[in-house]
Amino acid sequence: MAVYRRGKTWWYVFEFGGRKIQESSGFRNKTAALRAEAKRKTDLLERRAGFTKSKPIPKFDDFSKQFLEWSRQQHRPKTHELHSGNCKALKRFFHGKWLDEITQGMVEEFKLTRSQEKRWGDDEEIAVSGVTVNRALSTLRLIFNYAERCGFRVSNPVKHVTFFREAGKTRIISPEEEEAYLATSSQPLRDIARVMLDTGMRPEEVFRIETANLDFSQRTILNPFGKTKAARRKLTMTDEVWSILKERTVSSKGPYSFSSPDNPEKPIGSVRKAHDAAVRRASILPKFRLYDLRHTYASRAVMAGVDLPTLAALLGHTSIQMTMRYVHPAEEHKREAAAKIEKFKTARAIELASRSQRVTTKVTTVDRVQ
């Protein structure tokens, strides 16, 4: 048995069936690493016993291509694009590895290494977030699930890996921030943002608005897309949204209100660069995501008195619990709530004092009569 230390973690290396097995044990203790090596050999021997009856295990590089072809057929374009990007990061780490070589320890190593990498964004290098690492782990888990369904005798090494905790960074946009943001936004971002703020639609739902699904006489937008029945819904236009979509319908050269600049027969795919530029020009700190406009709509709706069941239907949610995650009261509304409670308590105290005084007066009057 051969184990060696790399950083703080022990690795093992040996040959099996003409293949070099070199993996992280996932442990910092040498004895535990030796046990992990022995267990790995035992697992390989058990699989080898039925090797002639099993499909040959592919390498990660080759199978990831097969997975992406399957993903292209099964997932929406945005989801497939996400898996494609994640596979690029995964292949940098698991390049040349056979699927059954990838262990939980190696996945933990990937998790740690990836979280310490830098990526280019907003004209500067920024650290890869835990959310980004988690998305890559989700893709890896799906790859192994697909491999099992394809008949390969592999176990999923992501099964017991703990994902990074994702801290909520959502927030609502103040009226001042909204004004500054829209003033510095280019088109079609400005119109997309205004539609989101007035309807609460998801960015991709706005991107894919078809002129055929707009009813200007009834002032409705039909959204036929979504994973759930609740997501496939009909929404009412505000006056501003009616004007925006009416103008875009007249000038549209294709079936979509927000067409791709490269092909009018396809919807626009992203406005991320335009959004980042608008936030930067407006000097808004902390920065916010385009999706936060949906959170802003939800919070403002609650503040305006919209009940949660109705808001859930407007947002396309299947449960009120999901809707509650979108509601973020602003500080001024929290202060207003506290003032209302204080006002209620004061009024209640005055009422009780008044009752007590009336009772005392009544008793005194009776005593005088007697």
How would a textbook summarize the main sheet? 3 strands, antiparallel
Overall number of structural domains: 4
Instruction: Please identify the top-level CATH class of the largest domain.
Output: Mainly Alpha
Strand order of the largest sheet: 1-2-3
Pick out the low-confidence regions. Answer: none
> Helices and strands, in N-to-C order?
EEEHHHHEEHHHHEEEHHHHHH
User: Number of DSSP helices?
Assistant: 14
Report the average pLDDT across residues. Answer: 87
Provide a descriptive summary of the structure in words.
It is a single chain. With 370 residues, the protein is mainly alpha-helical. The protein has 4 domains: 1-53, no CATH class; 56-167, Tyrosine recombinase, N-terminal domain (DNA polymerase, domain 1, Orthogonal Bundle); 175-324, Intergrase catalytic core (hpI Integrase, Chain A, Orthogonal Bundle); 342-370. The chain is built from 14 helices and 8 strands. It has helices at residues 30-49, 60-74, 77-94, 104-115, 130-149, 175-184, 189-199, 203-207, 239-251, 272-281, 292-303, 308-315, 320-324, 331-369; strands at residues 3-6, 9-16, 19-27, 118-121, 124-127, 214-215, 220-223, 233-236. The protein has a 3-stranded antiparallel beta sheet with strand order 1-2-3. A 3-stranded antiparallel beta sheet has the order 6-7-8, with no helix packed on it. It has a two-stranded antiparallel ribbon with strand order 4-5. A hairpin with a 4-residue loop joins strand 6 (214-215) and strand 7. Helix 3 packs across helix 5 (130-149), helix 4 packs antiparallel against helix 5 and helix 7 packs parallel to helix 11. The termini are far apart. The mean pLDDT is 87.
